[in-house]
Amino acid sequence: MQWRSLVVGLVVLRLSVSCVLWLAFGLGPSGSWGFNFPLGFSLQKLDLLFREEKGIDPGGSSWSQRIQGPKYEEPASTCAKVGEGSPKRSYMSFFDGNKDEYVRRYSSFPDTLREKMKDMAKEMFYFGYDNYMKYAFPEDELNPIDCEGRGPDVLNPSNININDVLGNYSLTLIDTLDTLLVLGNVTEFQKAVKLVIDTVSFDKDSTVQVFEANIRILGSLISSHILLTDPKHPFGNVGFEGYDNELLHLAHDLAVRLLPAFENTSTGIPYPRVNLKTGVPPDSINETCTAGAGSLLVEFGILSRLIGDSTFEWVARRAVRALWNLRNNETGLLGNVVNIQTGQWVGKQSGLGAGMDSFYEYLLKSYILFGEKEDHRMFQAAYESIQNHMRRGRESCNEGEGDPPLYVNVNMFSGEIMNTWIDSLQAFFPGLQVLNGDVDNAICLHAFYYAIWKRYGALPERYNWQLQAPDVLFYPLRPELVESTYLLYQATKNPFYLHVGMDILQSLEKNAKVRCGYATIHHVVDKSKEDRMESFFLSETCKYLYLLFDEDNPLHRSDNKYIFTTEGHVVPIERRFREKQWNDDFPCEEGLLSEREQNHRPTPSNITNCDRIPEERRYTLPLKSVYMRQIDHMVGLF
């Protein structure tokens, strides 16, 4: 009889709890107890409550509905009418909690702490750099666990994870040159430049990815040459006696060796890889990603304008136009992988992460640098398509009800969602939104990635927002979240972003530091490591962290304007880069932009858009506490 009494007791208990829930919230019994919902959580009844309260049509679609399927119907329930006259609770009230905890934590950042973090970022850089020079140079990378150098995998040419990047040309030293200037070390910068001049040659039997060689090597050589030769730049006259444009000559030599990638393609879209000595390998594939083919214009364009040879900008711009012409007519979206001979999309996913990220970035940055209206019109049309088809969530970042804004991966032809993961490369996008003046959307997307960082102490390569768990678990010390944090701080001067930087800095010290540097985190949960320190850790991650805390850096005090390449190299915004020494024999092709796109909005001048953030919000949290708490909840922080 005892077991029957136990069963009856449990039934009565469940009915009692259900009734309480019905009376309080209209929740009723369901398969989920408590409030630990995934991002695609089933809050239809809560959603209905706030829709009624706001006078919104319950038949409208929320983000979770757009992801999960058809709209829900209002349940025919008599219990929902109990207490009809009592005040109804907003859905967002479930995330109110103790809002002051966010204010207390993030609303101020003492100058002494800022100095401490600046010194910590500098020490981080030099711990990696000094050990690279001691144990790895002249090889490409440092293995920080074994304290050894790493070059191309000559025994396994198909190991593109290594060979796409490492070309046996002292990659880390070259990629790091302008970071030395940012940290104020003119002596070491000059020493490093002389080492590059004396030891680096591109006459190597190395097959490398065109994109990686362009952004890491070509971009750094051009940036360092500009900083060396023009005393008007932020760091002053850092040149030295006897410098005869050797870095520019090296850049030109490398670019010439990359040019065969643009030959023998029926679309003008380049092959993904070249051998620096022999050209395109005979077994080269005909498929390339959109970012890889469409993110060459900044470096190639600057080189053309420095040396007066239009060839490099011409081939890079032709590739961008070819990709742009392949976008879908209905959605305006591009795919992520294309066949360079047929122009057919092999990968139909359209997103903001791997395979697509820097394509959008360089449309805007090319316009900022070169002033070509065509680049701006393409970017604005692409941005509109992104907002229309990839963005999910409530309309306003900092107002209203509903899920927080997020950009998802969609089918380029239909705009329908393709999967439920986002990748860490997408964390660059808030920084690009800042450059475009869309600071409000940047704040919300950045907050989502920061919440993931807080949960794991790193950014997993892929994060499944529906399952609240990583899909791909490694973190190779990528800079994208730090970059966006830095740019948002420059736009808002809000101390919140200094706290974000401090969290990132301390996490890297705790989770990635090893005997001779900082290692790739193999597993963001158990914090196991891989013996690799990619060059972008010193070129970008450490640079942006240092700049975040160095308020008096020459880059911030200079009268000159500058921009960062996608690899974090400093490039000045100058009139000479807006002037061409040749006639444009490749004008904008007819039909490249539709009439609607050409007339969509006027081309703005390069002025700051930071005044879009109201003055009073610059001294409070950039995102209201209730929304921060909501995002933290959605990634499983509580």
UniProtKB/TrEMBL annotation:
<feature type="active site" description="Proton donor">
    <location>
        <position position="461"/>
    </location>
</feature>
<feature type="binding site">
    <location>
        <position position="566"/>
    </location>
    <ligand>
        <name>Ca(2+)</name>
    </ligand>
</feature>
<dbReference type="GO" id="GO:0004571">
    <property type="term" value="F:mannosyl-oligosaccharide 1,2-alpha-mannosidase activity"/>
</dbReference>
<dbReference type="GO" id="GO:0005789">
    <property type="term" value="C:endoplasmic reticulum membrane"/>
</dbReference>
<dbReference type="InterPro" id="IPR012341">
    <property type="entry name" value="6hp_glycosidase-like_sf"/>
</dbReference>
<keyword id="KW-0834">Unfolded protein response</keyword>
<comment type="function">
    <text>Extracts misfolded glycoproteins, but not glycoproteins undergoing productive folding, from the calnexin cycle. It is directly involved in endoplasmic reticulum-associated degradation (ERAD) and targets misfolded glycoproteins for degradation in an N-glycan-independent manner, probably by forming a complex with SEL1L. It has low mannosidase activity, catalyzing mannose trimming from Man8GlcNAc2 to Man7GlcNAc2.</text>
</comment>
<keyword id="KW-0812">Transmembrane</keyword>
<protein>
    <recommendedName>
        <fullName>alpha-1,2-Mannosidase</fullName>
        <ecNumber>3.2.1.-</ecNumber>
    </recommendedName>
</protein>
<keyword id="KW-0256">Endoplasmic reticulum</keyword>
<keyword id="KW-1133">Transmembrane helix</keyword>
<dbReference type="InterPro" id="IPR001382">
    <property type="entry name" value="Glyco_hydro_47"/>
</dbReference>
<dbReference type="InterPro" id="IPR036026">
    <property type="entry name" value="Seven-hairpin_glycosidases"/>
</dbReference>
<feature type="active site" description="Proton donor">
    <location>
        <position position="212"/>
    </location>
</feature>
<comment type="similarity">
    <text>Belongs to the glycosyl hydrolase 47 family.</text>
</comment>
<keyword id="KW-0479">Metal-binding</keyword>
<dbReference type="GO" id="GO:0005509">
    <property type="term" value="F:calcium ion binding"/>
</dbReference>
<keyword id="KW-0106">Calcium</keyword>
<keyword id="KW-0378">Hydrolase</keyword>
<dbReference type="Pfam" id="PF01532">
    <property type="entry name" value="Glyco_hydro_47"/>
</dbReference>
<keyword id="KW-0326">Glycosidase</keyword>
<keyword id="KW-0472">Membrane</keyword>
<keyword id="KW-0325">Glycoprotein</keyword>
<dbReference type="GO" id="GO:1904380">
    <property type="term" value="P:endoplasmic reticulum mannose trimming"/>
</dbReference>
<dbReference type="GO" id="GO:1904154">
    <property type="term" value="P:positive regulation of retrograde protein transport, ER to cytosol"/>
</dbReference>
<dbReference type="InterPro" id="IPR044674">
    <property type="entry name" value="EDEM1/2/3"/>
</dbReference>
<keyword id="KW-0735">Signal-anchor</keyword>
<feature type="active site">
    <location>
        <position position="357"/>
    </location>
</feature>
<dbReference type="GO" id="GO:0044322">
    <property type="term" value="C:endoplasmic reticulum quality control compartment"/>
</dbReference>
<dbReference type="GO" id="GO:0005975">
    <property type="term" value="P:carbohydrate metabolic process"/>
</dbReference>
<feature type="active site">
    <location>
        <position position="480"/>
    </location>
</feature>
<dbReference type="GO" id="GO:0006986">
    <property type="term" value="P:response to unfolded protein"/>
</dbReference>
